[in-house]
Amino acid sequence: MAAGDLVTVTYRSEAPPGDEGFLSVRCDVTDGQQVDQAFKEAESAHGPVTALVANAGITQDRLLVRMSEADFTSVIDTNLTGAFRVAQRAVRGMLRERHGRIVLISSTAALHGAAGQTNYAAAKAGLVGFARSLTHELGPRDITCNVVAPGLTETDMTRALTEEQRQELLRQTPAGRPAHPDEVADAVAFLAGAGYVRGAVIPVDGGAGLGH
Q1: Can you tell me whether residue 8 is helix, strand or coil?
Q2: Cα(51)–Cα(198) distance, rounded to whole angstroms?
Q3: Which terminus in the chain has less CB density within 10 A, N or C?
């Protein structure tokens, strides 16, 4: 919004504050009809969607031997198939506009794995292949698809970690602290304006992956 963009934010259950200068619409990314309706509301208010940030995510952490199929498929459906649903809907309009920027929010878990997160890591790794395949499909069109892979970041999801889990993640992070959401947003904003960066994975992890 600081750059003058008209922003629509989606939510599944609890609406964000209404005085932040953006449009908020309800959308569960596991429901294709809700995705379509959210785009219609955004397009009605702001015009064609030319930049998409797909960051919906859930966790169901368990060791594989204790993980149910529902634990696995629910995470895949939200974190990976959800990105497919919103990207597919966005690309239709971007092709008409001959311009678009898609940024998928992955995780460093996609790049080096994490015990108890086979479902989460698989979904987030899938976003990398998705982005690179879509980059080939879009070819010479002015539509890009890139990935941001955050490490430990101060969010509601990471605040649910145990202190032991948090300290282990910090031990692996040369920066010695979690990322602030604004630092992840900086990478997203860069990719939203970078027309010649395509199929890239940008780690925002305080050095935890040492560039990978």
Answers
A1: strand
A2: 14
A3: N
Q: Quick one: CATH architecture of 50-204?
A: 3-Layer(aba) Sandwich (3.40)
Tell me which residue of 132, 205, 160 sits closest to 57, measured CA to CA: 160
Are 100 and 52 spatial neighbours (Cβ–Cβ below 8 Å)? yes
Q: How many CA atoms lie within 13 A of 118 on its CB side?
A: 11
CA separation for the pair 212, 206 (Å, rounded)? 12
Question: Over the chain, what is the mean pLDDT?
Answer: 92
Catalytic option among 120, 126, 147, 169: 120
Helix (H, G, I), strand (E, B), or coil: what is residue 147? strand
Q: How many Cβ atoms are within 10 Å of 22's Cβ, its own excluded?
A: 15
Q: Is 196 a catalytic residue?
A: no
- Give per-residue pLDDT as tens, 169-193: 888 888 889 899 999 999 999 999 9
Identify the helix (H) or strand (E) that includes residue 69: helix 69-76
What is the pTM (predicted TM-score) of this model? 0.92
- Report d(CA 135, CA 129) in Å as an integer: 10
